[in-house]
């Protein structure tokens, strides 16, 4: 296949996504107001609690078996690498550009979390259905591609709501003060200053074991520096404690650090609806008796699977419309400078794809990935995708950087029209 034919194959699914996104943007205009703030809020809840879990569970149950799960073992590792590499590059970016503290989590999250869900579910089947597709029979390609995209979406959702969510949470500092937002979506939560948290934990430990001693004061370390050092130390494997300057045993320092991180992490969000749906879908798909009971034309309880699948089909258009509607805020003014916008694009569309090629080619060379060209294409594509749509939801939960996130996402998806098409074309050429 020539470059032009490959370019057209790669362009079609991207254009479909952008058209639906443009429709969402139009519906959110003040003169139309079909997808206004209230409507987006309710639709977002439907997508988060109903549509996406239904899509994840039904697709995994239908396409993933125990044998295919073993075959695709490298995909979760590859997705984890995309998050780790992206967050590392994002952390370097905020340091180089001296990004405002309350935007650190947003920028790092935008660099780390790629759209591993609905975009792949649009792109892969569309590529398979093209007459000039390099992946052979369209039926087999679509079946395998749906399995790859479904697993990618499920694993990506787990990492977003465990890894990225807690990064944004750690940096979730309101612009009015250096406080960590402890807001829980279920109970309204509370706001606890990081310094008061660490001081209370430290004083409690010292008073318990050394009630006769006078604890020495903690050095004055700015809250934003503590967050930066804690995050950087977790990435580099160093054991940093904000209270390391106090003369307490190492065991106490470790205990204090664990308490602080336990306070920061919202364990409930680790079991978000999409995460639970992933567990259910994998359990059904990998367990033969359950699979025979629910999946297939002759399954006695197939109506449950078909109903779930029908609900899940609404996820992709609804989520894409929400992204378009949220991009309307990106047309307004924000604190995000041109350097941050360009930096995120460089990370997501230049640095990440180049590093992804090295990772996937190394995996192929050492026999970690089979010879399936479609599988290799999906692994490569996971490094070249725009920012995950869930970043908008996460910033709304913490009420930090919502408009700034919209600006970054607006440019991210605008640049994706060209960047994603070009990288997809190159990937198609390299694996065909």
Automatic annotation (TrEMBL):
The chain crosses the membrane at residues 6-29, 41-61, 73-94, 106-127, 147-168, 269-290, 310-328, 374-398, 410-429. Keywords: Auxin signaling pathway, Endoplasmic reticulum, Membrane, Transmembrane, Transmembrane helix, Transport. Coiled coil: none annotated. GO terms for cellular component: endoplasmic reticulum membrane. It is a multi-pass membrane protein. PANTHER family: PROTEIN PIN-LIKES 1-LIKE (PTHR31651:SF6), PTHR31651. This is Protein PIN-LIKES 3 isoform X1. It comes from Coffea arabica (Arabian coffee). The gene is LOC113700020.
């Amino acid at each position: 296949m020539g470059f032009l034919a490959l370019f057209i194959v790669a362009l079609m699914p991207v254009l479909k996504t952008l058209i639906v996104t443009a429709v969402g943007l139009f519906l959110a205009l003040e003169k139309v107001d079909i997808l206004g703030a209230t409507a987006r809020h309710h639709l977002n809840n439907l997508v988060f609690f109903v549509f996406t879990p239904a899509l994840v569970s039904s697709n995994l149950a239908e396409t993933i078996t125990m044998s295919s799960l073993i075959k695709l073992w490298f995909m979760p590792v590859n997705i984890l690498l995309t998050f780790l590499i992206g967050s590392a590059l994002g952390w370097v970016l905020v340091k180089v550009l001296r990004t405002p503290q309350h935007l650190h989590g947003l920028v790092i999250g935008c660099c780390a979390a790629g759209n591993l869900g609905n975009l792949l579910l649009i792109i892969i089947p569309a590529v398979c259905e093209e007459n000039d597709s390099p992946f052979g029979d369209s039926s087999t390609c679509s079946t395998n591609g749906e399995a790859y995209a479904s697993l990618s979406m499920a694993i990506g959702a787990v990492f977003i709501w465990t890894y990225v969510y807690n990064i944004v949470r750690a940096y979730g500092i309101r612009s009015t003060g250096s406080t960590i937002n402890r807001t829980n979506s279920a109970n309204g939560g509370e706001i606890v200053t990081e310094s008061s948290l660490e001081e209370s934990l430290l004083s409690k430990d010292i008073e318990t074991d050394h009630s006769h001693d006078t604890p020495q004061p903690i050095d004055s370390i700015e809250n934003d520096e503590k967050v930066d050092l804690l995050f950087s130390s977790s990435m580099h494997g160093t054991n940093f404690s904000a209270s390391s300057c106090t003369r307490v045993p190492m065991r106490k320092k470790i205990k204090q650090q664990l308490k602080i991180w336990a306070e920061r992490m919202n364990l409930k969000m680790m079991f978000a609806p999409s995460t639970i749906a992933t567990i259910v879908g994998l359990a059904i798909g990998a367990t033969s008796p359950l699979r025979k009971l629910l999946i297939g034309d002759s399954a006695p309880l197939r109506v449950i699977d078909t109903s779930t699948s029908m609900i899940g089909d609404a996820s992709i258009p609804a989520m894409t419309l929400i992204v378009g509607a949220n991009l309307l805020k990106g047309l307004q003014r924000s604190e995000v400078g041109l350097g941050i916008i360009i930096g995120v694009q460089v990370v997501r569309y230049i640095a990440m794809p180049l590093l992804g090629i090295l990772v996937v080619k190394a995996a192929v060379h050492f026999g970690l990935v089979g010879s399936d060209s479609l599988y290799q294409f999906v692994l490569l594509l996971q490094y070249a995708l725009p920012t995950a749509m869930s970043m908008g939801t996460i910033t709304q939960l913490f009420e930090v950087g919502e408009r700034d996130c919209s600006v970054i996402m607006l440019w991210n998806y605008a640049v994706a029209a060209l960047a994603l098409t070009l990288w997809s074309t190159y990937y198609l050429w390299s694996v065909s």
